[in-house]
Every structure is written in C-alpha cells, then in structure tokens.
Amino acid sequence: MKILIIGHGRHGKDTAGEILTAEHGLRSISSSEFAAQKAVFPVVSDLWPDWQACYSDRAEHRDLWFHAIAAYNLRPGPSLAEQILVDHDIYTGMRSRREFELSRFLFDAVIWVDRSKHLPPEPGGSMELTAQDADYILDNN
pTM of this prediction? Predict the structure, then answer.
C-alpha cells in the first residue's frame, strides 16, 4: 500500500507516518530529509554548509522549500514522489497542487492530518492542498 500524508506544517504528519510504520510495517522516510538532499540543498548550497543544516532550518523557509521542490519536479526524470516510493510506502508532506495532480495515481490512500484547533494553517504560498484532497482526515486536535 502506498500512502500520501498531507496537512499544514506542525500538524502531526510525521508522527502519523511513524505510527503507520510502527503498527503496520510500512516503510517510511522523512520526505523533508529526502527533499533536502535531492531537491532543496542542491539549489541553495550557498546558504547552508550541508543538507542537514538546510533540513534543520526548513520551518523558517517553507516558501523556499515549496519552490525548490516544484522546480525539482519540472526537470526530466522521475518526480520526487516516484523516487520516494521506490523504497518507501509513505510520502509525508506534499504541498504542491501540480505535484499532487501528477502523482495522485501512485497512492492508494491520501490522509489529511488536521490540528487546526491548536495551530494556524500555513500561508498559501507554501501549501496548495486542502483537506478536500484527502480520502481520510485524521483529527489531531
């Protein structure tokens, strides 16, 4: 089974992925880590000493990350989603409408993680997906 977990930043997507991994034996990787190595750091290597530092600072640069991943998915070759799903069952944190529409067929289920009673949504410049894009909504309030 291939699962996409979406939702606003800090709403619990990674934790949901960790639970699915532990409880059901699904293979997962932090898509932010994966993206830092493949899509983001190569574009902005002059801003951080390595991909780990870039990854650690991701919450402060969500807009930059959004656009770097979008650009990565425009290049020839497999998309970020396709690369993640080669060795993993879960993609956590997709944000782009274009990426979603081009890769939706790869996933058996899409889960939206919601913590909106405690945290605000992200600005529209770094998140284009909504709860309506999901098959299931996980209430993390």
Answer: 0.90
